[in-house]
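> example.struct
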């Protein structure tokens, strides 16, 4: 309660969903107080939201007692664009290990893009995590611009898009459009540490080839 009256059910649901989005976007586990601050809610209200989400396995605690996304979300996510995930996963795995970079697929959701599935390279000394469910504005980053090409039906001078330090400081990305009939506009991308010596053109070409292979699975 905030003023002595029960909260409207839809408001409570919205707050719970927002809490999951905040945890998904966080770079590390959050305390109840930190989550409350980011939600702009009183600590006691945030605690009740968290307890409800914990009860459904959507939020869990790490060893220090801070909040992380729960395994229950993986169960819910299995059927989200499941055929696209299934088709993309083999190619993502090959690309990640071949290039030594985290490879991922993003999809359009309203005016944001959301990471659908990602694969980290096996043998890399240091990798960049790109967790499923991570979202950011459509206008920022290479995957967002690649998706905008599909939405606007624009070709572009090159078959790929690049970005440096736009979404997360210190990280760069290369992405290509992934146009799958019957699915939201998507992009296939890799992310790596800014400053690493990479052949962007070769990466873009490799991603374009992989996107073509994924599309063939839907023909």
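> example.seq
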């Amino acid at each position: 309660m905030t003023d002595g009256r029960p909260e409207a059910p839809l408001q409570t649901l919205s707050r719970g969903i927002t809490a999951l989005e905040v945890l998904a976007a966080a770079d590390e586990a959050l305390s109840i107080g930190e989550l409350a601050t980011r939600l702009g809610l009183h600590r006691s209200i945030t605690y009740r939201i968290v307890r409800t989400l914990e009860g459904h396995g959507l939020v869990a605690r790490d060893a220090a007692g801070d909040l992380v996304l729960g395994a229950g979300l993986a169960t819910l996510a299995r059927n989200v664009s499941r055929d696209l995930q299934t088709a993309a996963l083999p190619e993502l795995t090959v690309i990640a290990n071949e290039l030594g970079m985290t490879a991922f697929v993003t999809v359009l959701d309203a005016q944001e893009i959301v990471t659908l599935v990602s694969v980290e390279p096996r043998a890399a000394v240091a990798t960049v995590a790109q967790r499923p469910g991570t979202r950011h504005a459509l206008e920022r980053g290479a995957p967002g611009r690649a998706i905008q090409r599909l939405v606007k039906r624009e070709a572009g001078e090159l078959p790929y898009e690049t970005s440096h330090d736009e979404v997360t400081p210190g990280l760069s990305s290369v992405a290509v459009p992934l146009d799958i009939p019957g699915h939201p506009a998507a992009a296939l991308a890799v992310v790596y540490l800014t400053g690493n010596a990479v052949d962007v053109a070769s990466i873009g070409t490799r991603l374009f080839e992989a996107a073509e292979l994924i599309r063939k699975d839907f023909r």
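> remarks
Residues 82-99 form the longest helix (18 residues).
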